[in-house]
Design goal:
The complex is a heterodimer.
Chain A lengths: L2 H30 L2 E2 L7 E2 L3 H8 L1 H32 L6 H13 L2 H11 L6 H6 L22 H12 L4 H13 L2 H9 L4 H31 L1 H8 L11 H11 L3 H33 L3
Helix pairs in contact in A: 1-13, 2-13, 3-7, 3-8, 3-10, 4-8, 5-11, 8-10, 10-13, 12-13
Chain B lengths: L3 E10 L2 E11 L4 E5 L6 H9 L6 E6 L2 E2 L10 E4 L11 H11 L4 H15 L14 H14 L4 E5 L7 H18 L2 E6 L2 H7 L2 E6 L2 E6 L1 H6 L4 H6 L6 E3 L1 H4 L9 E5 L5 E3 L3 E11 L2 E6 L4 E5 L9 E5 L5 E5 L10
Parallel strand pairs in B: 3-8, 3-9, 6-7, 7-8
Antiparallel strand pairs in B: 1-2, 1-4, 4-5, 9-10, 11-12, 12-18, 13-17, 14-15, 14-17, 15-16
Classes of the chains: A mainly alpha, B alpha+beta.
């Protein structure tokens, strides 16, 4: 068998999977965005009507704003947490393997199970987080510093914060990538810094951060894409898109409800397309920055 | 400019003794080359002096200060690494200035010192380039300039020429020697390359398995090796070593000793002890002649015999060395 044929054969299952499960549905979604389709009647072309409706839809506006605010807050925090853990755990010491596994563990738990665990953690009455916050409180409903603990599931801002907090523990992939990146940095650079009397902050600012910047910027792009989609399960399972008015309704949940609950497939497809274009735009902007930085950090 | 003194320094990595009671002194303004095979502990020695490794026992002094327990920065030494250790994201100027900038020296001082150091090693023309735009030799010059700029008490050079191609290495070796003459600082240079050690050092310290075998001028160490290890480690090809039985056609040596003779002292003549030429390796102006008596001779390439030729070999008694067969120690003739 020729090498070319072997390559084609080996590639075939993956190519088929990508085509059938990603490329084709994406194309169908793209087409549906310009139709009205409820799964019962045949799709009817309606031009840009769905996009016009989206522009006037207050719920979509809220969902879009929620998604962007979530990404703007969660992505830097997630990256900072992953970087912090990677710098803390890159050295060898007793038990480091257990710590590293712990850092990765929440990422490999199925989304639904992860959501259900947090539903319990955030429960205002018997959830461990609020129990802890109320510990030594003046009354059974206040914290030690005399204020009410957050109402994670019923107060709009607290609920949004809850979803961000949830996202801060699923940083396993970023952590692993940054851990490997840090371990790959030449030890001589750090030894030289030690000989030159550089402080810990100076070493971080002048050596670690600039040398890890290209990977951090790639992770920034990747995490932005991830974060704009990640909210779906927590919003569905933990907060159910609420509390009113749509405080934790993000675009993925908006799409899901319009498609599978209200049977507005064309409308949901249009929202998906908007999200896709917006994501691509953000990543393109980030990529332009990465390209500028990469040249500066090229290692010959 | 300060002397460096190691007093019975021991350092273990698990079961392995990297330094096993090393006593060594680099005199003020001296270029001391520490040479030995891979894994002999020479880099560990340098790292202990720099403070990058803590010693288990013994003391290290730089100048009049005991520095054994001081952190690296407090020892006021500069180090040049084999990998150059240049910051890839900084320009040549920023790399050279690094030590001064982190110590928050005034800007004017930084500018002056960088200009001075870069001129001394000849990197003044590419101060705005980044390391990936430089050749190996240029990178090593930048690393040297960075070491110079802070005016430390001593310089520690960890195989700085090992990553260079043969031609650049020879050129840099000469430049390093010239640089040392110009600045007159104490330098400890670590290498596995015996040619580098012999050509560069004011004195050489030969290290093997964490133990110091011999310290002396290149001439002393080469001409009067203290033991068989030093004798065979220095010189290309290595010194011939003959048992008393193999040496008997040439010289009578005492029982329990072996005879050492450098290849350049093996004379290939028409008379002498008969031998057959096995292999002849031509290395430019010299030829290495491998003989069937287990001897290697080094002759001028013009005067080399043909492979398979029957020749006679001889050497002068004065050019030979005697070593104890059991201990490998040098035995001085009465």
């Amino acid at each position: 068998m020729s090498e070319r044929r072997q390559l084609v054969l080996m590639l075939a299952p993956y190519a088929f999977g990508v085509s059938a499960l990603i490329a084709l549905p994406a194309l169908v979604t793209f087409g549906l965005a310009f139709t009205e389709y409820d799964l019962i009647r045949s799709p009817e072309l309606n031009g840009f009507e769905n996009f016009r409706r989206l522009a006037e839809d207050d719920v979509f506006g809220i969902a879009l704003k929620n998604s962007l605010v979530f990404a703007a807050i969660a992505v830097p925090l997630r990256l900072a947490a992953a970087l912090g853990l990677a710098l803390l755990l890159h050295r060898r010491f007793t038990g480091v393997g257990a710590y590293r596994s712990t850092a990765v563990l929440p990422t490999v738990i199925p989304d639904i199970a992860y959501g259900l665990v947090w539903l319990w953690l955030f429960n205002p009455l018997y959830g461990p987080i609020n129990l802890l916050l109320r510990w030594h409180g003046d009354s059974p409903t206040t914290t030690a510093w005399g204020v009410q603990p957050p109402q994670w599931l019923t107060h709009p801002n607290d609920a949004r914060a809850a979803i961000i907090i949830m996202s801060l523990f699923t940083i396993g992939e970023g952590f692993v990538i940054l851990l490997v990146t840090r371990q790959g940095l030449p030890s001589e650079l750090y030894e030289l810094a030690a000989l030159e009397d550089a402080t810990a902050w100076g070493i971080f600012r002048r050596i670690t951060l600039p040398l890890m910047a290209p990977i951090l910027l790639l992770l920034l792009a990747r995490d932005t894409i991830f974060s704009l989609q990640w909210t779906f399960v927590p919003a569905l399972v933990v907060t159910e898109g609420g509390p009113p008015p749509y405080s934790t309704t993000y675009v993925p949940l908006f799409v899901y409800r319009n498609a599978f609950e209200y049977l507005q497939y064309g409308y949901a497809a249009a929202a998906t397309l908007v999200m896709f274009v917006l994501t691509a735009l953000i990543v393109w902007l980030q990529w332009r920055i990465v390209r500028r930085w990469r040249k500066g950090f090229a290692v010959g | 400019m300060s002397r460096i003194e190691l007093e019975t320094v021991r350092k273990r990595f698990g079961e392995t003794a990297a330094l096993d009671g090393v006593d060594l002194e680099a005199r003020e303004g001296e270029l001391l080359v520490v040479v030995g095979p891979s894994g002999c502990g020479k880099s560990t020695l340098l790292r202990c002096v720099a403070g990058l490794e803590a010693v288990d026992e013994g003391a290290i002094r730089i100048g009049d200060r005991e520095v054994t327990r001081l952190r690296p920065a407090a020892r006021n030494v500069s180090m040049v690494f084999q990998s150059y250790a240049l910051f890839p994201h900084l320009t040549v100027r920023e790399n050279i200035a690094f030590g001064l900038v982190v110590r928050e020296e005034p800007k004017q001082v930084v500018l002056e010192r960088v200009a001075e150091a870069s001129a001394l090693v000849g990197v003044g023309d590419f101060l705005e380039r980044r390391p990936y735009e430089l050749s190996g030799g240029e990178r090593q010059r930048v690393a040297l300039a960075r070491a110079l700029v802070r005016r430390p008490d001593a310089f520690l050079l960890d195989e700085p020429l090992s990553n260079l191609d043969a031609g650049t290495r020879v050129q840099m070796r000469t430049e390093l020697r010239r640089l040392h003459r110009e600045i007159g600082s104490t330098m400890v240079h670590v290498t596995h390359d015996q040619v580098e050690a012999l050509t560069l050092g004011d004195r050489i310290a030969v290290l093997d398995a964490g133990r110091l075998r011999q310290v002396g001028t290149p001439d002393e160490v080469y001409s009067r090796p203290r033991d068989l290890f030093v004798a065979r480690f220095l010189g290309t090809p290595a010194m011939n070593v003959l048992t008393s039985e193999a040496a008997s056609p040439f010289l009578q040596i005492p029982e329990g000793t072996v005879l050492g003779v450098r290849p350049e002292h093996v004379r290939i003549t028409t008379d002498g002890v008969p031998a057959k030429v096995d292999i002849v390796e031509v290395a430019g102006s010299d030829a290495f002649v491998h003989l069937d008596r287990g001897l290697v001779g080094r002759v001028s390439a013009d005067a080399r015999p043909a492979e398979g030729a029957e020749v006679g070999i001889a050497f002068e008694r004065e050019a030979t060395h005697l070593f104890d067969e059991a201990t490998g120690e040098r035995v001085d003739r009465p």
